[in-house]
Amino acid sequence: MSNWLWAAVLAVAALGLGAAAKPAPTVKAELRPAACAIDVSGLPNRIDCYTLIVPEARGTASRRMVAMPVAVIRAAHPKAGLPPVIYLHGGPGGGAVGGMAGRLKGVAGRELIAQDQDWIYFDQRGGYLSVPSLDCGELALTDAGPLSEGTAQALIACGQRHRAAGVDLSRYNAVEIVKDIQDLRRLLGLKQVDLFGVSYGTRIALAVLKHDPRGIRAVVLDSPWPPEADWAAGGPKLVSDAVAAIFARCRADTACAAKYPTAEAGLNALAVKLLAGPLTVGGRSYTAEDLGNFLMDQTYSGQGARALPRDVARIVGGDYGPLDENITERSGYNEAQHLTHLCKEEFPFEKPADVLKGAEHDPISQLLGRSMLRYFEVCKAFPVGRPDPSEARPVVSAVPTLWLAAEIDPGCPPQFARAAARRFKNGQFVVIPNTTHGVSGGSVCARRMIRAFLADPDKPVDPGCLSPEHDRFVFTLE
Question: What is the dihedral of CA 468, 301, 176, 417, to 10 degrees?
Fold first, then answer.
């Protein structure tokens, strides 16, 4: 256990983590200076670290507390008048602080993070380095859903274990994180902040605008996920559409088309075989869910999308190495936190019958059908409390907001963001061509637009830098 984590456990224990619910004075949020949760030596920016300690269940008699690591990254070249940026990680079920050092050292981080403004990283309640951490171990749960029936049952059991340990799973969701964000802003003494959300972090940012926008000056949404969008209903078709978009680009690329002329047809044939039952290759069994999740992950990733025709050709040719690599690396979520969000904020407002809508004759879509349907099975047994229908309604706001969508994105497609952005009086919407999920990491132009927007949110951003950077989709052919 790291020094930070041990200190956090002691801190929240002193304030009541694990204590039985009983009438008691109201407990309040605290922000304590703390050792950093990760090694920050050698990083280019000064970093101040804290532990944010908040009530697990505000407004109740419970004295249980939640601890979250906070890192304030001081601006390298601060510009007067600009407030700090609070970074909101995605998932749900991810984290921010653990990967902070790598981001600051990378090219994208050096061009964007904490250059003009301080940036604030924290792990949302239930996330990687929070206490409690709502992990379930190495289970095959991804954005495609539980990848086997055994995984689904293990996830249900995991939720029961966390509940038996005293965790109130109904308090790990966007509404509660909004309150954490406002406590963090207040305890840091900040009158204003900007929000930067990526992937499901955009859903959290939009919840702030819906429920409590006090002190929010401007918002950047990278690969937006609006609350009215459907996660599983129609989700398999979105993956199939992304695969088709990449192969369409391959056909239009002379070198790619010449090198992999039959990869797409071979993929469809393989999908049909796997839908009939698992295949055994080299002594290892592969399922339809394995291939479906591989395609989803590849089309999410810039590197994966560029290599998709090459990797599909390898698999179709009998070399299952790319699929094996995906299987090895696919457990990356705090699974119980992933589900406390989705089982309360997404699936109560979707219908299982709509999961494969429009995909009756599409084998690529059908690869993801069973796994996404298992989400509904798990959520029936996951104790997240009664859903609030307002969580599925669109957000309307006058806060200046920059919407940046990737042209190829099986999880957060641009059509969802385009429709949602129309409800923002001071919203700006830009699609980054020939890119995938997480455009701030893969586009120099996107990073320039983000910094320009945060410098003056009332000024229109200039998308002129998209050309020539994003005029072509460059494939990895070797």
Answer: 50
